[in-house]
Amino acid sequence: MKTKLVKAYGTQSPEADLKEVQIDRREVLSKDVEIDILYCGVCHSDLHFARNDWGMTQYPVVPGHEIVGKVTKVGSAVSKHKVGDIVAVGCLVDSCRTCSSCKNDLEQYCPEWVGTYGGFDKHLQTNTHGGYSEAIVVDEDFVLQVPNHLDLAGVAPVLCAGITTWSPLRYWNVNKDSKVAVVGLGGLGHMAIKLAHALGAHVTLFSRSTNKIEDAKALGAHEVVISTDQSQMEKAMGQFDLILDTVPYEHDFNPYIATLKTNGTLVVLGYLGPLDPPLVTVPMIMGRKSIAGSLIGGIAETQELLDFCGKHNITSDIEVVNIQDINTAYERMLKSDVKYRFVIDMKSLKN
Question: Hey, which residues does 226 pair with through a beta bridge?
Fold first, then answer.
């Protein structure tokens, strides 16, 4: 198969900084779209994967799955996109297309889904590489249209942080009659507040700190409950239809379950791993309350989100950085020193 070399930023080991490398991109096949990458968001998953925190990284790795760019070439059978279109690519670049999940627009749950990076490229017979690069080639079915009037840098995190929070909001049918709470005000949390507010819900932020109150209300939260204040937590008991827990580290879920209404659900979006302290099931049984998980969204749902963001003028709150500053951005991200998402201006790589 014909390929061409493009510049990218990646790493060869969990201990090494990211640096400039060259990677192969396939020449456009009949159903492919070639995209000149304009912006790429920086996700916590990028850092975890680059440093092999989940124990499954194969090196070398080029992260990045929040991609916004311009179409530069299309294959002969492409019908959904044309040269010059502003498009996006999220966390998926392929799936089996035949399983029940794929047939129901739930490609994110396909057992053979292919990640934008760290997946298996069936064409090149090697690992997929992500958006910290000049260009990418993707099957048209996994390329999304972007409303042109939105700030394109701010759109990038919608492809992961946005869809990760949108999918449960839609699945649990959040609307003007819903009371939604969000745990954690970071990359996911700030998008959850914006989207739930735009759906008409009454939105509350759970925070450990009073210094988040002003920011949360500016984003669309109606109130803030300080989770370290026992009296505020007691007052919140039995209040919420849905809680989106976006905290990426181990923490106690039990106090939040008590704030669910009967039939309410707490959805885990941020933390992967065992629970400590253990989950106490008494309030779940006594109130038919649930704890669930959710993973990004399918292609149709992600397009729905982008269209919704276009209608309501929603983008992520970002800090734009050059690719040469990615290692510093990773260290700042670990300290939560960003409001609320880093986005790479890919001109810095091309220049």
Answer: 207
Q: Could you tell me whether strands 318-322 and 144-145 are parallel, antiparallel, or unpaired per DSSP bridges?
A: unpaired
Q: Is 331 helix (H, G, I), strand (E, B) or coil?
A: helix
Residue 273 φ/ψ, nearest 5 degrees? 145, 180
What is d(CA 175, CA 170) in angstroms, rounded to the nearest whole number? 9
Q: How far apart are the first and last CA of the chain?
A: 28
Nearest to residue 27, comparing CAs of 123, 129, 134, 131? 123
User: Are 139 and 93 contacting, i.e. CB atoms less than 8 angstroms apart?
Assistant: yes
Give me the torsion for CA of 135, 139, 141, 146, rounded to 10°. 10
- The 8-class DSSP code of residue 98 comes to S
Comparing CA positions, the residue from 233, 125, 142 lying closest to residue 183 is: 233
pLDDT digits (tens, 9 = 90+) for 36-86: 999 999 999 999 999 999 899 999 999 999 999 999 999 999 999 999 999
State which amino acid sits at residue 125. Answer: Q
Ramachandran bin of 253, using left for φ above 0, alpha for ψ from -120 to 50, beta for the remaining angles: alpha
